[in-house]
Structure prediction request, 236 residues.
Amino acid sequence: MSLRIGFDMDGVLADFAGAYRAVERDRFGSSSATTIGNPEDEPAARDEDGDPPSPRVTNSLHTASDDRRKRDVVWSTIQSVPDFWTTLAPIGSGAVRRLHALMLQHKWEVFFISQRPATAGETVQRQTQHWLVKQGFDLPSVLVIPGSRGAAAGALRLDYHVDDSLKNCMDVKADSAAKSLLIVDSSDGLTIAKARRLGIGTAATIDACLDILDEASRHQSMPTLIRRLAQFVGWR
Prediction:
């Protein structure tokens, strides 16, 4: 049976954080450790009054206001760059090309799912497709969604989903039958422990995720090995 697998883009395959920090340094001469640099947080995620969310770490109201102003400037700059999403560096050398090879080998149905905001130039979908083709994945299926990642996973009837957001993984687990793989640094023990308590699998890199998915495909007809893999990864 062919597996249906969803992949988040930023923080999984594309280095959005690095590009965000570069824009911030260019505009302000430095990069702030408290600035949120996630396309799913900004600028689409807004409070009811229309303001961006408060920073995750603040020492004072002045710091909060300053961080908010910086984020607004950075996002305004990003959205003014024609075809910004085509300019990102990849995460993991050759990871997209390897994913393409595994897709062909195992006959996976692969979907790239994102909530990226629009920028100048082509649509987000077209920019993302161009980027994936450049990285070695021909004919990519790209879905730009405005809502819950879990609802998308359910509608697509995914078997697995790879993401760097614990919230997205929780949504997928709640609203679909897909098994989530959270990419999280091996030093972040608290997040790893929380994910595993929730039955969400973890891996340190995109290459480690591809190793796991490769094994899952190879052993689909071997329940004992699949159970061992689930125990190793953290799935329930």
Notes: The first strand starts at residue 4 and ends at 8.
